[in-house]
Amino acid sequence: MTDIAILETEISTAIAGAPDEAALEAVRVAALGKSGSVTALLKTLGGLSPDERKVQGPAINGLKDRVNAALNARKEGFKGAALDAKLATETVDVTLPVREAPAELGRVHPISQVIDELTAIFADMGFAVAEGPDIETDDYNFTKLNFPEGHPAREMHDTFYFNPKPDGSRLLLRTHTSPVQVRTMLKQKPPIRVIIPGRTYRSDSDQTHTPMFHQVEGLVIDKTAHLGHLKWILEEFCKAFFEVDNVKMRFRPSFFPFTEPSLEVDIQCKRDKGEVRFGEGDDWLEILGCGMVHPNVLRNCGLNPDEVQGFAWGMGIDRIAMLKYGMPDLRPFFEADVRWLSHYGFRPLDFPTLAGGLSA
Ligand code: DAH
Question: Which of 63, 149, 273, 314 has a Cα-to-Cα distance from 195 of 20 to 30 A?
Fold first, then answer.
């Protein structure tokens, strides 16, 4: 075997045995680099006679070309293997179900959803949303609403009071959303058309009462607003909210210090094994209190009862949420249990709209 043939076998074996690209590069340098074995052979050509060169020249150059070709082939092989490995680790199984993104996992609390539903319905009737603080003065929560000092109606509210201030006055946690009526009338000139959703507090707790609960108040003040308008608004609201074509409502005389006359409203329903259905049956369910705003309240808020009049109503939000979505117990509403929330909560992008459907 010639020296060239021996060298070629050695180099071929080294190329075939190189485990990675770095080892292959070392083989290339050892053969074709400045002081490589093939390069050394090429350098000997200069010192040969023309006849010897004719034989050795093609032989050594042929060796160089074959070594180059073998190196390139092995290099391509490494590249292909790297790509195959990459493709194998990055395969996507398009038949797998899509994982829920974090934003999709969160749920909107039924109370928030119901407040959005209420707002959509009343916004469609031209109502704005008004808000007030949870911590109120006795004046706004009671006195301006025509609860005289020492009046027994104050006792009905089981009020949470703060410690008295040096001047003897006491702040309290508002017992209803009605003080925001006062705030609105003091701030805004009639015509007024607002709804007031918010938190309210009373010292009371059982299956259907929690110390914190939610109400939505409505207030309309202009020159001619009357009980006929109120009745229509409440009927339209109930139909839209409970998503039924017909609701029978019953207006019963009642008493609230801030309205005259005062009424309580029941809706017709059917109770069946703990389930309540609307628009049928012959049971009645009380859902709200309402009435014409008392002239004393108008006066207390700087309005002249000979010039303006209006009506108001107050409704428990938790109650109507329980009814609409079939939630039997009020207490889990406020327990922050994610299992309850993932069952009863709403998807974050399911905005209730009248056009798209409230609870669709
Ligand atoms: N504030 C009353 C309550 O919490 C509910 C209510 C009754 C509100 C009649 C009103 C109304 O605006 O006119 O029991």
Answer: 149
58: preceding bond cis by omega (within 30 degrees) = no
Condensed to tens digits (0 to 9), the pLDDT of residues 212-244 reads 999 999 999 999 999 999 999 999 999 999 888
Q: Are the C-beta atoms of residues 202 and 159 closer than 8 Å to each other?
A: yes
Asked whether residue 192 is assigned to any structural domain, the reply reads: yes
Q: Which atom of ligand 1 is nearest to the CA of 315?
A: 5
Distance separating alpha carbons of residues 337 and 222, to the nearest angstrom = 45
CATH of the domain at 154: 3.30.930.10
- Report in angstroms the alpha-carbon separations of 272 from 265, 269, 280, 282, 326: 21, 10, 11, 11, 12
Q: Is the CB of 176 under 6 A from ligand 1?
A: yes
Is the CB–ligand 1 distance for residue 259 below 6 Å? yes
143 and 223 fall within a common domain? yes
Residue 153 lies in a domain: yes
Closest atom, ligand 1, to C-alpha of 311: 13
Asked if 66 and 187 sit in the same domain, the reply is no
Domain that holds residue 41: 2-89
Mutate to test the pocket of ligand 1, among 178, 213, 259, 264 (most ligand atoms within 8 A of CB): 178
Q: How far is CA 332 from CA 73, 215, 265, 322, 327, in A?
A: 70, 18, 27, 11, 9
- CA–CA dist 146, 81 (Å, integer): 86
Contact (Cβ atoms closer than 8 angstroms) between residue 198 and residue 215: yes
Q: Which band of pLDDT confidence, cut at 50, 70 and 90, is reported for residue 348?
A: confident
- Tell me the per-residue pLDDT of 114-126, one tens digit each, with 9 for 90 and over: 999 999 999 999 9
Q: Is the pTM of this model over 0.85?
A: no
Residues 227 and 262 in one domain: yes
- Whole-number Å distance, alpha carbon 317 to ligand 1 midpoint, is 13
Same domain flag for 161 and 237: yes
Asked if residue 352 is part of any domain, the answer here is no
